[in-house]
Amino acid sequence: MLLKVESLTKDYVTRFGGRAVHALRGVDFAVGQGEYVAVMGESGSGKTTLLTLLAALERPTDGRILLDGTDMASIPGRALAAFRRDRLGFIFQDCNLLDTLSLRENILFPLVLAGKQEQEMKNRLALLTERLGISSLLDKYPYEVSGGERQRAAAARALITRPMLLLADEPTGALDSGSASQLLGLLDAYNQNDGQTIVMVTHSLDAASHASRVLFIRDGQIADEISRGELSREAFYPRLAGRLTALRQGGERLA
Questions:
Q1: Burial category of 228 from C-beta neighbours within 10 Å (exposed 0-12, middle 13-18, buried 19 and up)
Q2: What are the mean pLDDT values of the chain's consecutive 10-residue runs (255 residues total)?
Q3: Could you tell me which residues are beta bridge partners of residue 21?
Q4: Residues 43 and 254 sit within 8 Å (Cβ to Cβ)
């Protein structure tokens, strides 16, 4: 397994009164190389905390996250930024592009930090932006392009490092339906054709139906999961919707 999450727990202490908030309570799951997993849950369920821990932006209270056999909590602070840069890719709902940099500069930024040679950066950029359909936009700034184009640039920035694991946090949340469909199609292509491993947090049934497996999280625990198997996305969608309905009728509060 590329990613193993074992007995993962995360507690926060409130600022006033010192009351402990149990954001995650012993979460266990694994993700294989080349798998595409979606995580769904209502606000406050723990899914954002889970993604934050997978991104090594915080350390767990207890339990382990193993990426390719490496316990992320064991990595010294100075080495952690390089570990994230070299092995993880991130796509956020709000893109997080720098307005003072062109799309070209935003996309190449992780490779510049990694000290890659100029020719290698040019080669990676040309191939990636052609596939994402933004080659003609590289000299523009984020505020000069559409939301869908910004998100494709953000995807290029995440993929240009060729990460072991791509993490996506509500990547279609701020997009119109056409741009969302285009982005999800691109993620599908990288998963199916390039074997890119993806973990995506989403509220969207449509987005989740692109995954090969969906985990449902509630009150900091994995409440259920469903696998797509050999089903097409179109056939998986109603089954996924049906599972959500069944969870609600059973007293679950998933969204």
A1: buried
A2: 95 74 93 96 88 92 94 88 91 90 96 93 94 94 94 94 94 89 92 95 94 94 93 94 78 45
A3: 12
A4: no
252 within a domain of the structure (yes/no): no
Residue 183 lies in a domain: yes
d(CA 111, CA 120): 9
State how many domains the chain has.
1
The confidence score (pLDDT) of residue 16 equals 67
Q: Is the pTM of this model over 0.85?
A: yes
Q: How far apart are CA 102 and CA 119, in angstroms?
A: 19
Q: Which residues contact 176 (CB under 8 A, 6 or more apart)?
A: 147, 148
Instruction: Give residue 186's pLDDT.
Output: 92
Tokens encoding 118: 């100029």
- Kindly provide the residue ranges of all beta strands, DSSP E only, lying in 125-187, ordered along the sequence: 165-169
